[in-house]
Amino acid sequence: MPKGSCLCGKLTYEYSGEPVKTVLCHCLQCRKLTSSAFTTNLLIPRENIKIEGSPKHYEFIQETGDKFTTSFCGECATLIGKETDAESFKPFLILEAGTLDEGFEQTKPDSEIFVKHRTPWLEEMKGLAQFETKP
Ligand SMILES: [Zn+2]
Ligand SMILES: [Zn+2]
């Protein structure tokens, strides 16, 4: 089973099965949350993932008006994932792929979302579905 953890190791997780989707997100909230140009998100059915430890949570309203709740480590601040009631993401924990302990290189994105915010020094990735905002 794929496993992952925060930087300090106080939060760990594992999930069964394959991610339903792998989505690169260019939204401004993901940029702030991770201080990076985009996030790499694995959509894992909530019942397939188990998080060990005591994540802290932060709620924010995404630019589409959808409410998101993040899970992160209170010690090292690593963002593990987020959840939302937005229709296309509701059944999933949206896992930050960069927290995988192994297998990150094998994650294959299938779409890019919020490409209207993609920074000009990044090109569209060939073969990936493109969405101006959310799918
Ligand atoms: Zn930590
Ligand atoms: Zn985003």
From TrEMBL:
Residues 2-122 form the CENP-V/GFA domain. The keyword Metal-binding applies. GO terms for molecular function: carbon-sulfur lyase activity; metal ion binding. It comes from Glonium stellatum. Keywords: Lyase, Metal-binding, Zinc. This is CENP-V/GFA domain-containing protein. Belongs to the Gfa family.
